[in-house]
Amino acid sequence: MISNLLYKELRLAAHPNLYIFTMMGPLLLVPAYPYTMVFLFSCIGNFVNFMYVRETNDIYYTALLPIKKMDVVKSKMLVVVISQLALILISIPFAFLRLLFLSDGNPVGIEANVAYYGFGLMIFAVFNYLFLTGYFKTAYKIGLPFFIGAAAAAVIAVLAEGIVHIPQLAWLDSVKMNDQIKQLPIVILGGILYGLAILIAYKKSVKRFAKVNL
């Protein structure tokens, strides 16, 4: 059932811009660029996709199918998770290419290292919880949930870009193997927060969507 719904989401309901924003990994090869924007672009891509869902009445159409309301929420949230994890996987080869061809560092902010991906997962975690739970409260109003989610995600992005300029935290900006090993707790923490956020957001969204009268 879920696989069929997911197929429908990706082939029929998804806006083309979702795929475009998921392919932002090559931005890691741009010199002197705030690389956390890669994650924020993914948030924008999912916002555009949910706007498309609203304008095409896809939530209403999906709810008319012989499925439970919780499956509607699950299918929509799976698209978000898949797009975000795909962006991370797509970006990793470009992070390695950056080390080969642009090894002078990033004067703007954090390098594309282990800590970078940890902060990226935190950006996604905060955005997913605030945006998705806000959206499924009405399954229609999308502007305010996106603004709140994007604002919180942007705060984490700015912090990630800024703290590496503090001398005592310069190791967060390093691409040396020893320093990246020190950064592992950050990506582990990011992964835990991401998993918890999407799980809690799912449960809360299901409860909220159950009360929505379509």
Based on the model shown, name its key terms.
single chain, 214 residues, mainly alpha, 72% helix, elongated
Question: What this model shows, in words?
Answer:
This protein is mostly helical and 214 residues long. It is 72% helix and 0% strand. It contains nine helices and no strands. The protein has helices spanning 2-13, 16-22, 37-55, 58-64, 69-101, 114-135, 143-163, 177-182, 184-210. Helix 5 runs antiparallel to helix 6 (114-135).
- Estimated helix fraction: over 70%
Task: Give the uncertain stretches in residue-range form.
Answer: none
Q: What does the radius of gyration come to?
A: 18 Å
Question: Structural class from helices and strands?
Answer: mainly alpha
The general outline is: elongated
* Biggest pleated-sheet summary: none
Query: Mean pLDDT score, rounded?
Result: 93
N to C succession of SSEs? HHHHHHHHH
The N- and C-terminal alpha carbons lie at a distance of: 22 Å
What is the overall number of helices? 9
| Proportion in β-strands | under 5%
Quick one: how many beta strands? Answer: 0
SSE layout:
Elements: H1 2-13, H2 16-22, H3 37-55, H4 58-64, H5 69-101, H6 114-135, H7 143-163, H8 177-182, H9 184-210
Helix pairs in contact: 1-5, 2-3, 2-5, 3-5, 3-7, 5-6, 5-9, 6-7, 6-9
